Amino acid sequence: MSISENLKKIKQSLPAKVELVAVSKTKPNSAILEAYSTGQRIFGENRIQEMVDKYDALPKDIEWHMIGHLQRNKVKYMAHFVNLIHGVDSLKTLQEINKQAKKHNRVIHCLLQARIAEEDTKFGLPFTEIEEILSSKELEALENISITGLMGMATFTDNTEQVKGEFTKINTLFKKLKTDNKEFTTLSIGMSGDYKLAIECGSTMVRVGSAIFGTRN
Ligand SMILES: *Cc1c(COP(=O)(O)O)cnc(C)c1O
């Protein structure tokens, strides 16, 4: 099926409140433009330089989301346009994002990445550290960022019960934090293989790549 057919099918299956990030990493601008022509406006990339190149070349009403692990020294290259940074996992990174956002007189929205998977290859913060960051004095001083929710990646496995358990865990934390944090609106969980399960478990934003654009090399 074509990119536009894939997108149409996925969009039809999403509840109205769930936002779709089309993960276009490694894919050419022509593929992004095909998705764009169907009305898709939110795209996700995992490398800053690649996202900057695409931002420069493509229509300016695209919302760019950084979904990959961040290198702090590269935050400055995307600070003038990035719409949401999903994978923030330290106060130091928040401070750098704040510093760069300030230079452009912007408030950059960020999600804290929670560690929910078993494998230690997945980045993310233990739940206790998330609560520490959210209640810290240092965070209060950062006026050019807004933490609008959580992001998580489940273990890569066929075991649906395990994935469901991990998504449920992050949703429970999300709901708890929401009561004290007015800005908390976004729970970014779910990828091509598990987005339906993620939606059952409270996802408000899914990040779907290969199911739209085909497999990556
Ligand atoms: C690549 C990537 C995705 C999309 O993965 P697919 O399985 O292709 O849908 C989602 N989230 C993150 C963080 C990614 O790096």
Automatic annotation (TrEMBL):
CDD domains: PLPDE_III_YBL036c_like (cd00635). The keyword tRNA-binding does not apply. It comes from the Bacteria. Keywords: Pyridoxal phosphate. Residues 3-216 form the Alanine racemase N-terminal domain. Its cofactor is pyridoxal 5'-phosphate. GO terms for molecular function: pyridoxal phosphate binding. Belongs to the pyridoxal phosphate-binding protein YggS/PROSC family. This is Pyridoxal phosphate homeostasis protein. The lineage of its organism: Bacteria, Pseudomonadati, Bacteroidota, Flavobacteriia, Flavobacteriales.
